Amino acid sequence: MTKLTLSRGLNEGLRRALENDPKVLIMGEDVGKLGGVFRVTDGLQKDFGEARVVDTPLAESGIVGTAIGLALRGYRPVCEIQFDGFVFPAVDQIVSQLAKMRYRSRGQVSLPVVIRIPCGGGIGAVEHHSESPEVLFAHTAGLRVVACSDAADAFTMIQQSVDCDDPVIFFEPKRRYWDKAEVDTAPGVAGALPFDRARITLEGTDVTLLCYGPLVRTCLESAAAAREDGRSIEVVDLRSLSPLDMDTITASVRKTGRCVVAHEAPVFAGLGAEIAARVTERCFYHLEAPVLRVGGFATPYPPSRIEEHYLPDLDRILDAIDRTFGY
Amino acid sequence: MTVESGAATTVVPALDQPAPDTPDQAGDFVQLLTPEGERIDHPDYPLDLSADDIRNMYRDLVLVRTIDTVAISLQRQGELGIWASLLGQEAAQIGSGRALSPADMVFPTYREHGVAWCRGIDPVKLLELYRGVSHGGWAPEEHKFHLYTIVIGAQTLHATGYAMGIQRDGADEAVIAYFGDGATSQGDVNEAFIWASVFNAPIVFFCQNNQWAISEPLEKQSRIPLYQRARGFGFPGLRVDGNDVLACYAVTQKALQAAREGQGPTLIEAFTYRMGAHTTTDDPTRYRLASELEMWKLKDPIERVRAYLVRGGLAEPEFLAAVDAEAKQVGARIREACRTMPDPPPLALFDHVYAEPTAILREEREQYAAYLDSFEGEAGR
């Protein structure tokens, strides 16, 4: 076991992927000498060369579009989109091209492309640097959408994503890049939890708290605070946002009878809405309260000096937990 | 020209050419066979085709026009949902398509029926798509012909990425990306030019300038001739008579060879004309003059080859008759194949979304199958 930051966990995972398969490429803006603006690809171009760690022109549609072409040729590109808000110029290539190629070719064409996107707020950034666009991609059939929340998952999930024959949108919680965790860097990810499965990060009996990415840490802190009030919270890190691991979610909610979903993205038409509907269908007779959601408001992302009011924090999550006991 | 901007006056330099060439004045282009069927030589493009090769190209031209005509009829009869006609663009497609080596990879739009023919794709597969039976059922790698792309220009980036893969493989292959005049306004096409240029990718950008992007004439897309765009991206561009199958063959072959030899991309603007509607849903009488079409009929891509073959004694009447007879046969075959083409079974709509179906997909499929089965005595699935 080694103590690594989340950013370093990704770096080590990508290094492992590059070592294991000569067809793996990394491409994006500033991923070479600079090592990416968050240093996730630090040192990789030096060790694997410019043909495999490719500094691209500054155009996101071009990054994803050429990655599709490379994948058609048998390569496994990992694209970096520098910030969440910059993925939108690439949406046609992701939604209309990448996601649909297997389907429209009747299974004859696989596009094993990973698109890494630093996501979420909380770092005091200017606008377009704090978005949570995951549900746009979860709504697109043909894509897998995952989010890591700590260094250990970052290390294994990025390797599992590269190994996957489906396109994967890989969200990285940018305000947690510097959080450290113990990582087992032993070779191979065969024994690891599959990346389309949720993980029960903290077992509990009274409320199921569903979260992913940057809010997993916040939810664990909320659970610790609730424990002081005598409430036992089960924290489930969804990890895979599409497909959803409904078996794990359903089992947990049937046990606790209460469910809160937290995400940074706006509550309206967010992932929490889909989860609430599915939990209601599957756990109707087990529920003590409606499924409640905590998330961003139905506004654009605010200026950073007031982002703390937009982002779900420990107290807002505790407030939702309290409300599930009011029914 | 001066532009008033607040207190300051900005002088905008006049362009060398204020507007792109209109369809009746193509300007300089590479031409090896005149509309009258006369062979002319070009110093940069010696032709390595035998009489037999040219006869085969004539056959290609006639057959793809037949396929196109039959497809339009099938749409009118309700057998196809829509059809995008290649009428008038046969020479651009057959000339460039026959210039390809077997290992070269093609990235088409949705109108490259002639190139598909050159790559050995059964025209019935094209009808499948326009009938709504599939999104394009052929095996792209087997034919080295990617699926049709409908979002304008998106395939040029796929083509460029594929070419970057060829570079990494060190293979003696090239890529050709097809697109139209309208597509040159797309960001993706411009990004593909940039990528291909800075990475020196082995790719030929083959633009069929058919003068019309549905109802918008070329002047809505560009103030300079399209081939001149290449210079700004740092690679060569040239214009060819897009209705001259021999010239299209020669310029494409040379550009592909340059790409394979590591000389990077070339932009070819094939100056041609969309003689039909954009698709069968379009009505060109609303936006263009009949006289324009009449003028282009005089430059027909097939007639000039026929005139050349006949006048030079290179084709006997029996050969021409045999081609016409084959065209009738091909037409009858695809007409019949289209009319008897079965719909896919309903549950096929759940196939091939992911490498393995997800739990949610499996659940939806099972529920829908049960729902269909609930209709007793009906065909169901």
Reported by name, the CATH topology of the largest domain in chain A is: Rossmann fold
CATH class of the largest domain in chain B: Alpha Beta
Count of DSSP H/I helices of chain B: 13
Report helical residue fraction of chain A. Answer: 25-40%
The beta-strand count of chain A equals: 14
Name of the CATH class of the largest domain in chain A = Alpha Beta
The spatial strand order of the largest sheet of chain A comes to 3-2-4-5-7-6-12
Radius of gyration of chain A: 19 Å
Number of domains of chain A: 2
Unreliable spans of chain A: none
Shape of chain A: globular
CATH architecture title of the largest domain in chain A:
3-Layer(aba) Sandwich
The total domain count of chain B is 2
Instruction: Write the element-wise H/E pattern of chain A from the N-terminal end onward.
Output: EHEHEHEHHEHEHEEEEHEEHEHEHH
Instruction: Please compute the radius of gyration of chain B using only Cα atoms.
Output: 23 Å
Name the structural class of chain B. Answer: alpha/beta
CATH topology category name of the largest domain in chain B: Rossmann fold
Helix and strand content put the structural class of chain A at alpha/beta
Mean pLDDT of chain B: 93
* First-to-last CA distance of chain B: 68 Å
Largest sheet of chain B: 5 strands, parallel
Brief account:
With 327 residues, chain A is of the alpha/beta class. In chain A, 35% of the residues lie in helices and 20% in strands. In chain A, strand 13, helix 10 and strand 14 form a beta-alpha-beta unit.
Written overview of the protein:
The complex is a heterodimer of chains A (327) and B (381). With 327 residues, chain A is α/β, with parallel strands linked by helices. Chain A has helices at residues 6-20, 44-48, 60-72, 91-98, 101-104, 134-138, 151-163, 215-228, 246-256, 271-283, 307-310, 314-324, and strands spanning 2-5, 24-28, 53-55, 76-80, 114-119, 144-147, 168-173, 180-183, 199-202, 207-211, 233-237, 240-242, 259-266, 292-296. In chain A, the strands form 3 sheets. Chain A has a 7-stranded mixed beta sheet, sandwiched between helices. Chain A is globular. In chain B, the strands form 3 sheets. Chain B has a 5-stranded parallel beta sheet, sandwiched between helices. Chain B has a two-stranded antiparallel ribbon with strand order 1-2. A two-stranded antiparallel sheet of chain B has the order 6-7. Helices cover 41% and strands 10% of the residues of chain B. Chain A binds chain B through residues 51, 56-57, 59, 61-62, 64-75, 89, 92-93, 96-97, 100-110, 141-142, 144, 164-166, 196, 243-244, 246-247, and chain B through 134-137, 139-141, 146-147, 149, 151, 154, 156-166, 168-169, 187-188, 191-192, 194-195, 198, 351-355, 358-361.
